[in-house]
Amino acid sequence: MRIALLLPAALASIAAAPATVVPGTAAPVIVAAPAVLATEQGALVRGQLPAGATGLSLDGKAVRTTADGRYVIGFGRDAPATATLSWRNGNDITTEAVRIAPRLWRIQSLPTLPPKPVPDAEFDAKRPAELARIKAARADISDLNAWQGVFIAPANGPITGVYGSQRILAGIPSAPHAGIDYAAPAGAPVIAPAAGIVRLASGPFLLEGNLVMIDHGFGVVSAFLHLSRLDVKEGDSVHQGQRIGAVGGTGRATGPHLHWAVTWTDVRVDPATLLGAR
Ligand SMILES: [Zn+2]
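Above: query sequence and zinc ion SMILES. Below: predicted holo C-alpha cells.
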C-alpha cells in the first residue's frame, strides 16, 4: 500500500499549509495550520521546504538541502510510526509531523541453517576490513543532485526478492533482506539506475561478491552485489543507463542474480520507492 506517492518528476512540496489570516482582528494573526507528511516504512522521500527556510533536521539530525530547499530523507524497515521534521525561517521554527505507515513484511521460516560457504576463521579475519571499505564508500554526503531524478531498474528480469522480507532459519531470525533481487543470467548487463560517482568497484567480498557502489548525492548510495564483472572503477562519473557491470553469483549467492540496495546515510531504504509505480 502506498500512502503518499511523491513523484520524483514533480518533487512534492510538503511545506506547511498556507497561513490563515483570522478575520475580525485588528492586526493579522498568523495561524500555522497543522501539516503532516504521510509516508511508509522503507520509503525514500523527496520534498521541498518553503522559500527561505533553512536548518532542516529530521528527529534532530541535520539534513542537507539544496539552495532552493529541496531535500531527501529516508525511513528504515522498522521505522517507528512518527518522526519530526523541523526547519527555521528567520526567527520562526516550524515543526512538522511525519506519519510512517507500517508495512507487512514477508516472513519465511525454514527448518535448517544453510551451510556456511566460508570457514568462520577466514570470515572473521577478512570481514572487518571489508565492512570498513563499504562504510567508507557511504561516509561522505556529496552535493551531487542525481537523487532528484526518476530512477530506472538496474537489471532486466523478474524480481525474486523484495525489500524487508526475512527468513527465520531453524528458529533464528536472519537479517531482513535490504534490497531488491532481480533474476537474470550471469553476464546480463547491470546499468546505473541514476547518475552518480562510483565510490567502490571491487571484489570479491565474502558476502557481496564483486561490488559496485554509486553515490547519487545527499547521502543516497546504491550498491550492486554478486557481479560477475566490473565495468567501472572508483571515481568514475556514470550517467543513468550506463553499463556498470554484469550479473553474477559471486559472494554468498545461491545463483546468478542482481541484488540492488539503496541507503540514505546509514538507513537502508526500499529501492522500489525510487522507481515509478510498483
Ligand atoms: Zn538480495
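DSSP finds one helix and 23 strands in the chain.
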